[in-house]
Write a structure and sequence with these properties.
By secondary structure, this protein is an alpha/beta fold. It has helices spanning 14-25, 47-52, 54-73, 88-112, 174-177, 194-205, 225-238, 331-345, 374-380, 395-400, 428-440, 445-449, 460-469, and strands spanning 3-10, 30-34, 116-119, 121-128, 131-137, 143-152, 156-158, 171-172, 186-190, 209-213, 241-243, 247-253, 258-263, 269-274, 276-279, 283-285, 318-320, 359-361, 366-371, 384-390, 406-412, 418-425. The protein is globular, with a radius of gyration of 24 Å.
Length: 476
Amino acid sequence: MSKSFDVIVIGAGPGGYIAAIRAAQLGYSVACIEQWQDPRGEFRLGGTCLNVGCIPSKALLASSELFENTAHHVSGHGIAVQSVAMDVARMMARKDGIVNKMTKGIEFLFRKNKIHWLKGHGRFVSASAEGIQIEVSGAGEAQTVTGRNVIIATGSKARHLPNVQVDQRLVVDNEGALAFESVPRQLAVIGAGVIGLELGSVWRRLGAQVKVLEASPAFLPAADDSVSKEAFKLFSKQGLSIELGVKIEAVNTRDQSVAVSYADASGQSYTFEANRLIVAVGRVPNTDGLGLENIGLNVNERGFIDVDDHCRTRAPNIYAIGDVVRGPMLAHKAEDEGVMVAEIIDGQKPHLDLNCIPWVIYTAPEIAWVGNTEQQLKREGRAYKTGQFPFAANGRALGIGHADGFVKMLADARSDEILGVHIVSSNASDLIAEAVSAMEFKAASEDIARICHPHPSLSEAMREAALAVEGRALNI
């Protein structure tokens, strides 16, 4: 007889493990299925984000930024440094230690909340009035478990290019790019999105010559145009070579190098010889082998599972969250959906506003935004006001030596409701939280303008941008 649970979650990434914890907090019996294994074959919680995504990449970004600042930017503070060297193995060990601490932390939370961790791959067998049957295989003898409710949280995987073999040695995706044993002299990156820019920045800071090749003729087209222009200028100044509107013609690997042939926007062909190539052309939903057909579900033309505004699928008592459904592929969006679904199962009435999900790129400076861009408002024909304030006029930014960038705020022309906030700056990932809170409560720009902010602080730029919406910024 199979084990039965009130809630079964398939996937223990940020969406899945948070959904499991919230369901357990609400008093339900919960099981969470996870198949992730590290290179030693040890099963791990945390999914892509904790193991080969958000957490390790931010660890390497921090290490590489500290290296670059020490090597090139501390002299202005009166600090003399004779020589700086990077021990890549030690940097990687630090990264691995952080990952291990985080994943072990989730194991502790599972024990604390009495969540059953079922190790292996979950596959739907059938669904009936008695419950939803799922086979778990890959860790010893297969078993079948039954759930009254099931949450699909299997995340996403790297999109690969046709005819470009990713071997995780010379040609890598995000996983391989987090495990280089040495700094490549020349590094090619296909894709100028979040992953390409972050990982390209890591290795550029450590000494690699980095060329980023992007198929789109526009840089960061999802961001506000003013943010895209500022970021392109700053990244180019730092030494990232970014080419837009390119077409990859061929990728040829040799024993210790890879040649990337491409045509630029004018049609002129070039070849870039690199020691490594990172393929960062987006991610695709991870629904392989789920057995969706056995419960009357399938994926749409884009590979996602269709859900309603509350993440319900067409199949009764089966939900899907995170990267396998519509909306941005962001860990914090998956977490909020996980909490929402657990509370819906409990009979509560939560909601999630996808327009209030913040986006962040952890480069230096960071880029963050929430809500509408100016070009979106123009396309919609919505009347709006805008206010912008540069960090070059912020005392705290000057004091810490990070005065690049700005805060830009967009507000409705009549009601003054904040419609979008866009930031390029150090610590933009933290600053954007104020804007998210304001937009969730339908605040006006005047609300931010009249709130006292600490001085000196980077957050003052948010207030100044809000003041600038009405043309009354105090420090420019």
